Amino acid sequence: MVWTRRHVLSLADFSPADYDVVLQTASSFREVLSRRTKKVPTLQGQVVANLFFEPSTRTRSSFELAAKRLSADTLNFAAGTSSLSKGETILDTAKTYLAMGTDMMVIRHKEAGVPQAIAAEMDRLGVRVGVLNAGDGQHEHPSQALLDLFTICTLFDSEQPRLSLLEGKKIAIVGDILHSRVARSNIWSLTASGAEVHLAAPPTLLPRWFADYVADSDDRSAPNPRQLFVHWTLNPALENADFVMALRLQKERMTSHLLPSLREYHQQFGITRDRLKLCKPEVKVLHPGPVNRGVEISSDLMDDPQFSLISQQVTSGVAVRMALLYLMGGGKVA
Amino acid sequence: MVWTRRHVLSLADFSPADYDVVLQTASSFREVLSRRTKKVPTLQGQVVANLFFEPSTRTRSSFELAAKRLSADTLNFAAGTSSLSKGETILDTAKTYLAMGTDMMVIRHKEAGVPQAIAAEMDRLGVRVGVLNAGDGQHEHPSQALLDLFTICTLFDSEQPRLSLLEGKKIAIVGDILHSRVARSNIWSLTASGAEVHLAAPPTLLPRWFADYVADSDDRSAPNPRQLFVHWTLNPALENADFVMALRLQKERMTSHLLPSLREYHQQFGITRDRLKLCKPEVKVLHPGPVNRGVEISSDLMDDPQFSLISQQVTSGVAVRMALLYLMGGGKVA
Amino acid sequence: MVWTRRHVLSLADFSPADYDVVLQTASSFREVLSRRTKKVPTLQGQVVANLFFEPSTRTRSSFELAAKRLSADTLNFAAGTSSLSKGETILDTAKTYLAMGTDMMVIRHKEAGVPQAIAAEMDRLGVRVGVLNAGDGQHEHPSQALLDLFTICTLFDSEQPRLSLLEGKKIAIVGDILHSRVARSNIWSLTASGAEVHLAAPPTLLPRWFADYVADSDDRSAPNPRQLFVHWTLNPALENADFVMALRLQKERMTSHLLPSLREYHQQFGITRDRLKLCKPEVKVLHPGPVNRGVEISSDLMDDPQFSLISQQVTSGVAVRMALLYLMGGGKVA
């Protein structure tokens, strides 16, 4: 197994081997995290800059912890107190962090394409800095999809998680597909695994063109049309599903005429213990967090360890992000 | 001496042995802090999350430094940029930090009871995460009272500070008792030591029911009525006092009809060199900071090392917080 | 070579030997920064507090990285969430960080003189804490001028950068001189080197008294009048210049009647490839950043490595700040 990527920007062009390298490396770091001293000296003396142009606590903390556990030094850039408000361009901000000696940049921005633009600039300059997309607009959030993948795959083989374990599984993604970078990244990874992906949402959050958009993508060969399905009601997506991924409903959506009301949304698309009876008996529920309890998922279901993988997702996040930073930093594949 | 607490939430149920363990452990860390390399590897690889839902610089820096000097990694949660504003519950935020691999949580919140609720949830989940209350509403601020206790006790025996050294001492607590979590925590520790505690404040900041509230507490046996006294004027509290603790006057109090004016407050309850003549000659003055100079304490008195312990309190704070994190992290009692 | 300064507050009283010690020490740290593990254990266990009362990302990150690469622990103080808004004085805030065990303080404040006041208080208290001025109002920004100096000197001798290398060079400083702490610090260092310094700006940003103000300074012997020149047009400053330093134009200046418009400013004082033809062929351009592209410097010139030293300045910044923290921390001069 080899890893040749300097950047992690999108899963659209990830190969099956890329996924397996990440899964396998994350698996070995998960072992580190179960020790009392959860730290390895791998990135000692290297600098990871967390450039979060869009505020975030959860994802930034996860990356910060991943970097610290690899013994890297971290720099946190807080949007709002930044030079951006002083008229500096985003590329100039990135180049400033480059010139300070940053080895890897973890970038979140509310506009799609910003991490890609920064990565392209780094390559143009001929520097060996890795750029990781920690969420760009409504485009992609690859580390989230990779941690979802890791969480699911380790259920089937905790020692050797690999993409092929999901072949033939049915996975429902429910909620605000249209605005979700998490959904977009997950569609690439899950269809690549050979799973069937069923999207379910109200039409305002899952327009008819969405499936075509994915199918027409020239980023890579389109997902097999027998693998990606679109539903405007919940039940067909849930029937015999192995996994249900609920997406976070942004407050903005709730107040901008895209939804009648939270109560109606929950009634139609909320995941409840009752609705899960349509799924396979061993079905598991995922959510990228933070959850609006009682909206996307009923509160009791969220806390039920028989069904909920939400807490495992957060734990996987640190291991997967350690793996990504490690691989981007030139670490050997185990 | 043994330490059996996973959490430090309140001093209401602290035993004399608990106090002595903290005092003795802090004493050994104070020695570490006097070295040039003020660091020990005790908590290497462990993660301390500072979850300050209420903004704070002073206390957060003190905890952050304590954690770093024990070689822990720290995660800082900044209220305002957090998921809370995204609709997540506080318990879900705490569980997210748990799932990331946090070993200890230091929690401040403007509502009383939040650290307790989080600790109860951690216990319910059966995880070994320690929760430290860094100030919850107007309820308690145990690490502040413990650092006050440490500061006072080391005056009498710098090698072996212990609770019993305060037996029979007279300690005045002056100011906004009603709204003060610092006062509430200090009342438990100081009465437990056998000291006489005299509260002094205007009636608006020290209502008649306050003494009953303390006496009626079922958290533990009420303080001996011969140990806790309430005064609406300053002089009876100061007479022959060994220590005077001035409390911070929040700006809000000054503008909300609870006080006639700052000038009148200072005239009636401000601690001045002149008023200290009522006390024992070797009297010392404490204040949890930040101080409104010329309001709670006269400016010259605050800077007079003969009387002021304010700077020692800050220094004690780091040693006491190192001790608490160390003990909660399973460190052996010396 | 010896270093006897506890604080770095101003360059007005820097001796030639002081400059050379900083340049030589920075040179050895630049070598550390070129290694893969860019870290040395010099300040292990020491605490550097970054007290940025005025928000900053770039300078704070540079100091934070410098401290971490010396293995110091860092505390960041964020204006806004601070005790200052609670009525505490700046000196009391500094004394709180002192009492916590801070070894060095890096201070930025929008009022001139704050770092000096804090340093004076530390000296009065007889403590061995070093204070570094990271920008005080419109007064000085010594670490910026030192990194500019280092950037220029290493062009002439990368192994042994020293002040005397600039003797007889012509350096133009262009832009908002009046409000610039960067210009003020650079005037001291560059005239001390024996270079000719030519200031160019519109009269509103470079009043007639400015040259006198510098000449009359009793901080040290005034710069030789044959070394400091004032121009209200750009060309005489550029003619045969070896270096051009463009200053950042604050947005406030642009909207407060001090300038007709950005377009006119750029037309009259913007540095362009065309205008550089007046300079020496090997002329280099500096800017302290962040740059308003197309205002102070034309966008293409800024990105042209043949002329622009902007990125080297940022890199020099980390090496120079490591040198300053190292020397203030009692490090031996190489």
TrEMBL record, chains A, B, C:
<feature type="domain" description="Aspartate/ornithine carbamoyltransferase carbamoyl-P binding">
    <location>
        <begin position="6"/>
        <end position="152"/>
    </location>
</feature>
<dbReference type="GO" id="GO:0006520">
    <property type="term" value="P:amino acid metabolic process"/>
</dbReference>
<keyword id="KW-0665">Pyrimidine biosynthesis</keyword>
<feature type="binding site">
    <location>
        <position position="86"/>
    </location>
    <ligand>
        <name>L-aspartate</name>
    </ligand>
</feature>
<protein>
    <recommendedName>
        <fullName>Aspartate carbamoyltransferase</fullName>
        <ecNumber>2.1.3.2</ecNumber>
    </recommendedName>
</protein>
<feature type="binding site">
    <location>
        <position position="58"/>
    </location>
    <ligand>
        <name>carbamoyl phosphate</name>
    </ligand>
</feature>
<dbReference type="InterPro" id="IPR006132">
    <property type="entry name" value="Asp/Orn_carbamoyltranf_P-bd"/>
</dbReference>
<dbReference type="GO" id="GO:0006207">
    <property type="term" value="P:'de novo' pyrimidine nucleobase biosynthetic process"/>
</dbReference>
<dbReference type="InterPro" id="IPR006130">
    <property type="entry name" value="Asp/Orn_carbamoylTrfase"/>
</dbReference>
<comment type="pathway">
    <text>Pyrimidine metabolism; UMP biosynthesis via de novo pathway; (S)-dihydroorotate from bicarbonate: step 2/3.</text>
</comment>
<comment type="similarity">
    <text>Belongs to the aspartate/ornithine carbamoyltransferase superfamily. ATCase family.</text>
</comment>
<feature type="binding site">
    <location>
        <position position="290"/>
    </location>
    <ligand>
        <name>carbamoyl phosphate</name>
    </ligand>
</feature>
<dbReference type="Pfam" id="PF02729">
    <property type="entry name" value="OTCace_N"/>
</dbReference>
<feature type="binding site">
    <location>
        <position position="59"/>
    </location>
    <ligand>
        <name>carbamoyl phosphate</name>
    </ligand>
</feature>
<dbReference type="GO" id="GO:0016597">
    <property type="term" value="F:amino acid binding"/>
</dbReference>
<keyword id="KW-0808">Transferase</keyword>
<dbReference type="GO" id="GO:0044205">
    <property type="term" value="P:'de novo' UMP biosynthetic process"/>
</dbReference>
<feature type="domain" description="Aspartate/ornithine carbamoyltransferase Asp/Orn-binding">
    <location>
        <begin position="167"/>
        <end position="328"/>
    </location>
</feature>
<dbReference type="GO" id="GO:0005829">
    <property type="term" value="C:cytosol"/>
</dbReference>
<comment type="function">
    <text>Catalyzes the condensation of carbamoyl phosphate and aspartate to form carbamoyl aspartate and inorganic phosphate, the committed step in the de novo pyrimidine nucleotide biosynthesis pathway.</text>
</comment>
<feature type="binding site">
    <location>
        <position position="248"/>
    </location>
    <ligand>
        <name>L-aspartate</name>
    </ligand>
</feature>
<dbReference type="GO" id="GO:0004070">
    <property type="term" value="F:aspartate carbamoyltransferase activity"/>
</dbReference>
<dbReference type="InterPro" id="IPR002082">
    <property type="entry name" value="Asp_carbamoyltransf"/>
</dbReference>
<feature type="binding site">
    <location>
        <position position="289"/>
    </location>
    <ligand>
        <name>carbamoyl phosphate</name>
    </ligand>
</feature>
<dbReference type="InterPro" id="IPR036901">
    <property type="entry name" value="Asp/Orn_carbamoylTrfase_sf"/>
</dbReference>
<feature type="binding site">
    <location>
        <position position="108"/>
    </location>
    <ligand>
        <name>carbamoyl phosphate</name>
    </ligand>
</feature>
<comment type="subunit">
    <text>Heterododecamer (2C3:3R2) of six catalytic PyrB chains organized as two trimers (C3), and six regulatory PyrI chains organized as three dimers (R2).</text>
</comment>
<feature type="binding site">
    <location>
        <position position="144"/>
    </location>
    <ligand>
        <name>carbamoyl phosphate</name>
    </ligand>
</feature>
<dbReference type="InterPro" id="IPR006131">
    <property type="entry name" value="Asp_carbamoyltransf_Asp/Orn-bd"/>
</dbReference>
<feature type="binding site">
    <location>
        <position position="181"/>
    </location>
    <ligand>
        <name>L-aspartate</name>
    </ligand>
</feature>
<feature type="binding site">
    <location>
        <position position="141"/>
    </location>
    <ligand>
        <name>carbamoyl phosphate</name>
    </ligand>
</feature>
<dbReference type="Pfam" id="PF00185">
    <property type="entry name" value="OTCace"/>
</dbReference>
